[in-house]
Amino acid sequence: MPLVLPVVWSDDCLLHEPGGEVWIGLPDPGVEGPERVQTIRKTLVEAGATVVQAQPHDDENLLSVHDQGLVSYLRDAWSLWEQAGYPQDPGQNRVVPYLFPHPGLLGEQEVSLPTAMSARAGMYAFDTMSPIGPGTWTAARAAVDVALTAADLVADGTRVAYACTRPPGHHVTRGAFGGSCYLNSSAVAAERLRGHGFSTVAIVDIDAHQGNGAQSIFWNRDDVLTGSVHVDPRAGWFPHFLGFETENRETNRNVPLEPGTGDTGWVAAVAELAEWARDADALVVALGVDAAENDETSPLRVTAEGFRDGGRSLGGLGLPTVVVQEGGYDLDALGGLVLAALEGIEEGMPRRA
Asked: What is d(CA 204, CA 91) in angstroms, rounded to the nearest whole number?
């Protein structure tokens, strides 16, 4: 059967070229490049999906989940970096922070905006793995428009819409970015659905790494539920400081998994989150497929059939559903894994009367 759901797309999402990353002080080639979504799109089109162009949306949608300071910084960071001359001296052609306003540094003092752009680069970032280049803002902003367009389609009656987008966003909090993420497209989509009249929206994050951004953004709200299944951060995996069962509450659920967990344990965890989200009025699936067995960015071992089965659990809720692409870095398998998850969601959807 051909894939029925619309695939929302923007060419601008290809413009972010991180140029690698800095990990434990060393340059690393990184894995989050534009070829990821190109591979996914090609696979989905071959499976019969219809591509829908993203529509522009006002920045008020960003500001519903992000602070103005973060949005303004991301918009201007590259031009300010260029003006400061850092691409020529010392020769750093990406915005990379070296200093962060840690509470241990500030004590009880309020943070002040640094004069030097080299220091300002650490105000809104929480790691060194998310460089900003000349196309980063345009791509991240387009990623949000892709997710918002998918949310609009669902609000207009489409049962499931898929946002084929990057850079990913699920690690971004209200006021800080990191984890190769810049704007939280999944969170913005959830807030857009709320604006369309859905009383309670559930975000179910199945990326291999905990969706700390949505957890943080919606922590004090009961109209957006946040759930995440991910590799246990106690085993040494990002985001390290968050993603534990001790954070669980009525509106937030973490299901951490041991390294090596395969289809059986992972599918059961997704089904658990689906059941937890059953009473919501709409669903956002933060679709990372980096839990795959050959994806080097996590120690989980999920197969395409596992992703299909997990998708069936989520589709089985029968909720209006927006699927937003997050992680997934095994380029040889990436398109097929996303296709399996989306086919599972469609297969799980109750038949219309």
From this structure: 41
What is the tally of structural domains in the chain?
Answer: 2
Residues with catalytic annotation?
A: 171
Looking at the structure, do residues 41 and 167 belong to the same domain, yes or no?
yes
Residue owning tokens 């969170």: 187
User: What 3-state class would DSSP assign to 7?
Assistant: strand
Burial 194-221 (b: 16+ CB within 10 A, else e): beeebebbbbbbbbbbbbbbbbbbbeee
* 199 located within any domain: yes
pTM of the model: 0.97
Q: What is the pLDDT of residues 28-67, one digit of tens each?
A: 999 999 999 999 999 999 999 999 999 999 999 999 999 9
Quick one: 228 and 103 in the same domain? no
Q: DSSP secondary structure string, 196-221?
A: TT-S-EEEEE-SSS--HHHHHHTTT-
Amino acid sitting at position 54: A
CATH number (domain holding residue 173) = 3.40.800.20
Q: Quick check: helix, strand or coil at residue 66?
A: coil
81 vs 157: CA distance, rounded Å: 44
